[in-house]
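INTERNAL AUDIT FORM
Audit reference: QA-55
Scope: verify that the stored structure record matches its stored sequence.
Auditor: D.O.
Record contents follow.
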Amino acid sequence: MEETGYKVILKNKQTEETSCKKKPAVWLSVAPIAVLVGLLAAVVNLFGSDTLEGASQIALLTATAVCILPAMIICRVSWKEIERAIVHNITGVATALLILLLIGALSGIWMVSGVIPTLVYYGMKVMSADFYLASTCVICAVVSVMTGSSWTTIATIGIALSGVGMAQGFSPGWIAGAIISGAYFGDKISPLSDTTILASAVTETPLFVHIRYMMITTVPSITIALTVYTLAGFSHHAASSEEVNGFSEALVKSFNINPLLLTVPAVMLLLIVKRVPSLICLFASCFTACIFALVFQPHLLGGISGDGGLTGQFKGMIMSVYGRTAVETGSAALNDLVSTRGMAGMMNTIWLIICAMCFGGAMTASGMLGSIIATFLRFMRNTVGVVASTAVSGLLLNITTSDQYISIILTGDMYKDIYSAKGYERRLLSRTTEDSVTVTSPLVPWNTCGMTQSTVLGISTLTYLPYCFFNLISPLMSIIVAMTGFRIIKTPPPAPQEGGESKNMSPISQNPSPKITETLPPLGGAGGTVTNPISNS
């Protein structure tokens, strides 16, 4: 009975639209990905940290062309379909692009206004080097749970904690790994997170049922990560007290360090708790920081513009929001920390995201993505196979579509009827989707999350990837728990109806550009229909 319903789903999935298109072979579907990986490896070797300046974008566009050409010639996919899918993808990340611009503005003005230097100054006073990595992970987790946003957490408190770690002599990879692990743990279990809401909505799982069930894999994963960070902290040779004191003195000489500056992040946190939409929250925080910059750092603003007068200070404030700034502190390490790029510093990332959306749209419209995913279905013979196939598919979607929201929706849409046919609860699908998609998105260099976190923290994705222990462990933990069968309930599949179709099943479409729209619970203060929500990443 189970196998019958399962085959019906596969048949419906594979036959839809076959009258006008030819399904691409697996080898053909893998070719664009192989080209992309090869080109990215080549440009990283040639350009190093400058790959974001344009080389990576060219690699993505070349891989897109490698996908489109055989799709049109061999698979008979029209250019209009491909174009529609690409436009749909780019439209879906429009909000993310606006958020990126505001994050660039926020990081610039928070630095020049003295907000981040103040957080760093007091952080060095209270944080022990032995527990720095673990404390950083916990702090980012708490903030991310409260805000429901990994992006906001990393762009604000994450940057401040990064400065503390640099002063204590930790390597950038370890620092970013602890920040990202904590931020994505909080994002994953927060009821305010749009990825959490989206995963539960797409799989038709009640939100808090989804969150409670995730704890089975999430708590062990973060526990292991915290253990590793604690051991690494104790084995770390911290910077001498003279170096830390020198760092603090340089901050005091360069910035007006004042506890009142902590009002800016406090106001932002209040707005987030009140569920004010992210765009409004980020803009309000930028505006508040601009006022505080004029009050507390007029000498810095005058130095940036080259004019110490009131007009020059206002000009320096505007320049801090949109452009690159540098402050001479007398410390090379501190100079690197306090230099900012503003909105202009985000343009290469935005360019890369647009190119990545072109690649994802082409892979989806051509049917190549569906062909690759279909190969995993044959391995779904038991619980471990079901979970492992879902996890691998989620990771593959992160790599090919370059966007976690599209990946969550496609994973849920492709597998929810299969889970029902095989007798598994939907909460297993929702948990596996988050374990494989949400947390691995910052580990893919050309994914929107990977590009954003790399740009915000100023560290390449491949540099911090080995140290994001929570993100690396989560998909494996999902498979390990499946091996034990703990809290995984399997019920008899529904009996097939007359005509061979199973009860309560709908065919899984392989439309080239699926509609990325779900009716979700209130999100960040705004309920209703959310189209590829990026606002609380």
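Auditor finding: record pair retrieved intact. The longest strand covers residues 517-523.
Action required: none
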